[in-house]
């Protein structure tokens, strides 16, 4: 089972969109996926059309008083794709502050996923937090979506500093995904070249273009694969190929 965090400490870069589309694409090649929505905004649930909040969520899974089983907390949202939502984000953080160790916290919480899923994909909040720290300890790979604007590019130093402070190898950053690329603007083109000067081709993926259809699909609770099969999807498929090669 390969464990992936979709993380950036800057909001608005399309983390949840990448997480949802990556999960949906992987399940379409007959892989079993657990998508864990640990962004405080719960956008994965919205983007996949989950209209009713499940009775049990991630909080129930880690509740030290009455812990629920993983099977009681997941929602089968698509064939081969299960969703683990969250609520009571502040209480999750509070419980983590009680934990003796955070470096193996999620190994214990998600131990029952190990023999069931091929991939666990975690959508993170855009922040430094104790929950994000636990996630970054847990995962095998970190995928960083970024907008092609100078503030996002300069923010990469904060991500690397965060990992160094946690004494987590920065080699966990496996892919950087330029997202919402508008090739018509010189700023986007220049910033893409800047990224290419920072990251080699083994880390930097092809940019994913800004498309109105993707936004429309998310509002409808669908992925672009479901909403508009005429939209060119090569960029997402290219990302999936890169992820599969990670292991």
UniProtKB/TrEMBL annotation:
A Pfam family assignment: AAA_31
Domain annotation AAA: ranges: 1-169
Signal sequence range: none
Transmembrane segments: none
Top-level taxon of origin: Bacteria
SUPFAM superfamilies linked: P-loop containing nucleoside triphosphate hydrolases (SSF52540)
PANTHER family reported for this sequence: COBYRINIC ACID AC-DIAMIDE SYNTHASE, P-LOOP CONTAINING NUCLEOSIDE TRIPHOSPHATE HYDROLASE
Protein name (Swiss-Prot/TrEMBL): AAA domain-containing protein
Organism: Orenia metallireducens
The organism's taxonomic lineage, starting at the top: Bacteria, Bacillati, Bacillota, Clostridia, Halanaerobiales
